[in-house]
């Protein structure tokens, strides 16, 4: 090469590798590249020096951090009731005898960070919603998602894992504030985290047409023409956030790590885009259903949740599941014998060991 002071950026992208030669400081190039940081290595070529991999271990350990901000035209008290009602109704609508939401645990908790609240553990059976590209190598039931959530309104923390890809972890930290989405760093991130954080504002009056938005199916609601009969709020037309009162902003910090060579970046994009679509759909429906839940109390919501959990257990005709070391296992029945295991268990374990 003519330029003796160049940087070779080695990019692991899918199962193919390519080399791109760039001028300038390697750290600067590393940060400026749009590709995922977790799969990059930088090699510096200099005159009279042997090629050597530069040590960017701290950079390689970085994960994707994205903050979504969603404004809803409700009060803080109304939001707690409305979002709880909406989640319940969405779970009911998306649960049938074959797939849906399974409630594993539901109890009170208390810790120093969040205080007192409600802990829930759920398993989402989403076989029919698995993307086609994932079906090419994964068994049909690969998209079984375990969700553990600690809710102490107005704050909460949720950890989502998929046992099939046991190295992948998605964490959602939520803070609700009565503002218009202009508060910065509500999650108390440090300088390094703020440097890689991406912020996206989600407008509930908008409609998305990506894969997950079509799967979740909340695009048939037009909030630009909707007006609440009970509250008189709406329609949400252009610039509605500039003059709307009341309003609550939900700040959702999504941290995603999928350290799987050749597949991790695509899994990260898949799961983050799925959460984005879910956030948008849930808040769109929360406002669209305001006349259904407006005026209810949290005691009524708690009773509805209890009834809903019983209904989901009856609707989802699957053997009860328990979590052992974070992995779902079929619960032992009364005669002491375990339920029959899935036919594709060996295939699932074999491929999972390769990806681990």
TrEMBL record:
Gene Ontology CC, one term: cell periphery
Family annotation (SUPFAM superfamilies): Bet v1-like
UniProt-listed InterPro entries: PI_transfer, PI_transfer_N, START-like_dom_sf
Domain Phosphatidylinositol transfer protein N-terminal: 64-308
Region ranges (Disordered): 334-356
Pfam families xrefs: IP_trans
Gene Ontology MF term list: phosphatidylinositol transfer activity
The protein, known as: Phosphatidylinositol transfer protein N-terminal domain-containing protein
UniProt source species: Rhynchospora breviuscula
């Amino acid at each position: 090469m003519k330029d003796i002071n160049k940087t070779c950026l080695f990019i692991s992208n899918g199962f193919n590798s390519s080399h791109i030669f760039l001028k300038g400081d390697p750290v600067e190039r590393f940060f400026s590249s749009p590709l995922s940081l977790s799969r990059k290595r930088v090699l510096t070529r200099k005159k009279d020096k042997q090629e050597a991999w530069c040590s960017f271990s701290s950079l390689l350990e970085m994960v994707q951090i994205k903050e979504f901000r969603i404004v809803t035209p409700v009060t803080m008290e109304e939001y707690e009731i409305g979002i709880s009602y909406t989640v319940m109704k969405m779970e009911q609508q998306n649960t049938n005898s074959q797939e849906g939401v399974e409630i594993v645990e539901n109890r009170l908790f208390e810790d120093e960070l969040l205080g007192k609240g409600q802990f829930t553990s759920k398993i989402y059976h989403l076989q029919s919603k698995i993307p086609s590209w994932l079906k090419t190598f994964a068994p049909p039931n690969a998209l079984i998602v375990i969700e553990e959530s600690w809710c102490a309104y107005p704050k909460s923390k949720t950890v989502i894992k998929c046992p099939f890809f046991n190295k992948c972890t998605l964490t959602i930290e939520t803070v609700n504030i009565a503002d218009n989405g202009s508060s910065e760093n509500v999650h108390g991130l440090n300088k390094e985290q703020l440097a890689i954080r991406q912020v996206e504002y989600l407008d509930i009056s908008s409609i998305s047409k990506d894969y997950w938005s079509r799967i979740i199916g909340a695009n048939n609601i037009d909030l630009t023409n909707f007006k609440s009969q009970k509250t008189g709020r709406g329609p949400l037309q252009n610039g509605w956030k500039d003059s709307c009162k009341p309003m609550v902003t939900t700040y959702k910090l999504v941290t995603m790590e999928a350290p799987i060579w050749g597949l991790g970046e695509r899994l990260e994009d898949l799961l983050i885009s799925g959460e984005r679509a879910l956030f948008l759909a849930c808040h769109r429906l929360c406002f669209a259903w305001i006349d259904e839940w407006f005026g209810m109390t949290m005691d009524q919501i708690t009773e509805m949740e209890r009834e809903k959990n019983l209904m989901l257990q009856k609707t989802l005709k699957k053997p009860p599941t328990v979590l052992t070391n974070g992995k779902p296992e079929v619960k032992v029945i009364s005669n002491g014998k375990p339920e029959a295991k899935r036919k594709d268990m060996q295939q699932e374990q074999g491929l999972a060991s390769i990806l681990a």
